[in-house]
């Protein structure tokens, strides 16, 4: 997960606010001011304090959860083994209605003591690593090395730590809290897990606040970086490189397309990017390939700019096809262009004065932390695009090498503040008695 700092965000539609959040106020008494009062963080509530103390005291337990979860394989679309173990651990904590839904998400419930807002705290089960990857975790000093140790075994461990602390301290939230492990957050998963949650399991805006815990550090992701991902194929009959010379070549067409895409101009604000990440095709050096294939990724925090870039890329693909045909005017061979969608993630923005964002920043400050807002592509994209207040927070500690075999996590001396932050944020949003 890469975060980009951003300040201008579009406000989501918010159905109702947590009692613990202060109402809208006029800044300095001005009738035109649009600032919102700082949320009231219940860090002095005795039971909340007991939960925070339990998290710090039992920090070794949290790290052990992180490591042992990480050593359970969870390749894309094959998260079932890790999900089954996650169910067992949530059940052992005494949560209610623990289940796996039709898409493979793990859901556990902690009913509220009143009629406060419903809050969902989530980490994602899947990794980017294919089946057969060695997922054993090794320790070197204070660092833990292993694929997925930070992204998102850390998030899954934080969710467990918050649930355990709330149970131990008997924290009574006004609203119901759901503890969740989602599938399909990474890559080709295309947010299938969280998409199912908000369209099938909780389709009628039943979740008031969504919090995803993903990665390491103390950042707050309040903006959703949208993405369009395509597999582009130029297809033809192919032939011998000498005997069939003079016909359009799919790989040459692919090269023309990539060159045109590489020259596209995109705005730096709102940040918009493109990348050709995979190319395929060809059988031998002396064959005109029957196909030239590439995977394209386009991203932006702006839905409008993403749409503009998408149109430019499609135009470049068509131009490349026409140019390859024009290069061989005597040939009757015609290539075909095929564009398959391999992932669409919606973009979205929230203002920094949105209650859920302010709650995150205030909860961090209460723990002596400084959190900066930014934009990224996470499970929060989907609810943000639907107008449901949602953010992604980091899980504490430090880490590097996400999506690589050399990924590592270091808990440091204050790693426990990650799950403390998540716990305090949930208590702020759901309200406590």
Describe the 3D structure:
The protein is an alpha+beta fold and 433 residues long. It has two domains: 27-225 and 347-430, Zn peptidases (Aminopeptidase); 226-345, 2-Layer Sandwich (Alpha-Beta Plaits), CATH 3.30.70.360. Helix content is 31%, strand content 22%.
CATH superfamily membership of the largest domain = Zn peptidases
Question: Largest sheet, order of strands side by side?
Answer: 1-2-6-3-7-16-8-15
The CA-CA distance between the termini, in Å, is 35 Å
Q: Uncertain spans, ≥5 residues at pLDDT below 50?
A: 2-35
Helix run count: 10
Structural class: alpha+beta
Shape: elongated
Quick one: CATH class of the largest domain? Alpha Beta
Biggest sheet layout: 8 strands, mixed
Helix content range of the residues, please?
25-40%
What is the CATH third-level topology name of the largest domain? Aminopeptidase
Query: What's the number of extended β-strand segments?
Result: 18
Q: What string, H for helix and E for strand, traces the elements in order?
A: HHHEEEEEHEHEEEEHEEEHEHEHEEEH
Blueprint of the fold:
Elements: H1 46-57, H2 59-70, H3 80-92, E1 96-100, E2 106-110, E3 119-124, E4 138-140, E5 143-145, H4 153-169, E6 177-182, H5 192-201, E7 209-213, E8 220-224, E9 226-235, E10 239-240, H6 250-262, E11 272-280, E12 287-288, E13 291-300, H7 303-327, E14 336-345, H8 355-366, E15 373-376, H9 381-385, E16 390-393, E17 398-400, E18 408-410, H10 417-430
Parallel strand pairs: 3-6, 3-7, 7-16, 8-15
Antiparallel strand pairs: 1-2, 2-6, 4-5, 5-18, 8-16, 9-13, 9-14, 10-12, 11-13, 17-18
Helix pairs in contact: 1-4, 1-10, 2-4, 4-10, 6-7, 8-10
